Amino acid sequence: MNDLRDAYADLLDLEGSSLSQDFLTDAKNLELMKAAIDGDTEAYDQLLERAGQDIATQVHLDTTQFQTAFDQLMADYYQGQNLDDM
Q1: Which of 57, 33, 54, 28 is nearest to 45 (CA)?
Q2: pTM of the full predicted structure?
Q3: How do residues 18-65 score in pLDDT, each as one tens digit?
Q4: Are 58 and 66 in contact (CB under 8 A)?
C-alpha cells in the first residue's frame, strides 16, 4: 500500500499520507493514474481533482469529529457548574 501511496504522491506532487485508503484503491483512480502516467493531461486533471475532494472530505470529517468532541466537553463542563447560585 505504501508503494501505491508514494506513486500517487509523486505523480500529484502532494503528501501521500493525506490520501485515504479508499482513494488509493479506487479502480477509477487507478485507471486515471495509468492514463496520467502515459501523458493524458485530462486524466491527470481529473485525478488531481479527485485527490482534492478526498482530502477535503477527510478534513471535513476531522472537523466534524472535533466539533462533536468539543460540544461534549462543553456540555460536561456546564453540567458540572451550578448556575443557579449565580
Answers
A1: 33
A2: 0.69
A3: 999 999 999 999 999 999 999 999 999 999 999 999 998 887 766 777
A4: no
Nine-digit cell at 5? 501511496
User: What is the residue-wise DSSP string for the chain?
Assistant: -HHHHHHHHHHHTS-GGGS-HHHHH-HHHHHHHHHHHTT-HHHHHHHHHHHHHHHHHHHHHHHHHHHHHHHHHHHHHHHHS-GGG-
Q: So what's the pLDDT on residue 62?
A: 65
Residues sharing a CB contact under 8 Å with residue 78, sequence separation 6 or more, in sequence order: none
d(Cα 16, Cα 47) in Å, to the nearest integer?
Answer: 14
